[in-house]
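Researcher: Sequence recovery benchmark, item below. Answer with residues only.
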């Protein structure tokens, strides 16, 4: 059974804009459109208006995620992915797109779907400063400390952090 949806107030900044919609019942993201047509040259970015603003309940945030089809077909990414829409934000939601294709321009028409909005509950934490943190199995290992793909020349390359960690472990 599907859980009850969370009610979110939405306002059309552009009176003609289609509201964000889930393409399928189980989808996590509701598609956002651009209200402005745009053409991006290779490497170019733009801040595109979605024509909507929302009022999220306290304890929620909305995240602007890329669409994988646009990424795979055209090399379109979001510069700040995922963009964070705070519960208190009442401005128009915008999408910061970049064309990462090295050769082809990409064109968006008005009301093309360019991103998707994922609404989630978020925890608020209180930070308690301490001199020492409790130990853990991972400790300070990160940035590839468990192995993984190698860089082109097969060494740790310019990853000074990984080298520093393995140096310490070798002592
Ligand atoms: O992709 C995005 C990311 C953010 N926002 C809006 C909603 C968010 O609440 C506000 C601020 O975003 P963020 O905190 O990421 O940006 P900032 O550079 O820290 O700005 P501020 O100083 O206003 O917090 O901008 C968008 O419309 N689209
Ligand atoms: Mg901020």
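Model:
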């Amino acid at each position: 059974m599907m859980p009850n949806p969370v009610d979110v107030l939405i306002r059309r900044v552009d009176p003609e804009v289609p509201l964000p919609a889930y393409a399928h019942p189980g989808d996590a993201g509701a598609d956002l459109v651009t209200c402005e047509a745009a053409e991006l040259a290779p490497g170019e970015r733009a801040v595109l208006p979605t024509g909507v603003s929302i009022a999220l309940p306290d304890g929620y945030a909305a995240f602007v995620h890329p669409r994988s089809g646009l990424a795979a077909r055209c090399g379109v990414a979001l510069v700040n992915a995922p963009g964070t829409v705070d519960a208190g934000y009442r401005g128009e939601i915008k999408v910061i797109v970049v064309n990462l294709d090295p050769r082809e321009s990409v064109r968006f028409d008005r009301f093309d779907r360019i991103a998707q909005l994922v609404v989630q509950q978020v925890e608020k934490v209180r930070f308690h400063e301490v001199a020492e943190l409790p130990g853990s199995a991972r400790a300070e290992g990160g940035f590839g400390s468990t192995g993984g793909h190698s860089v082109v020349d097969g060494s740790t390359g310019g990853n000074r952090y990984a080298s520093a960690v393995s140096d310490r472990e070798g002592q």
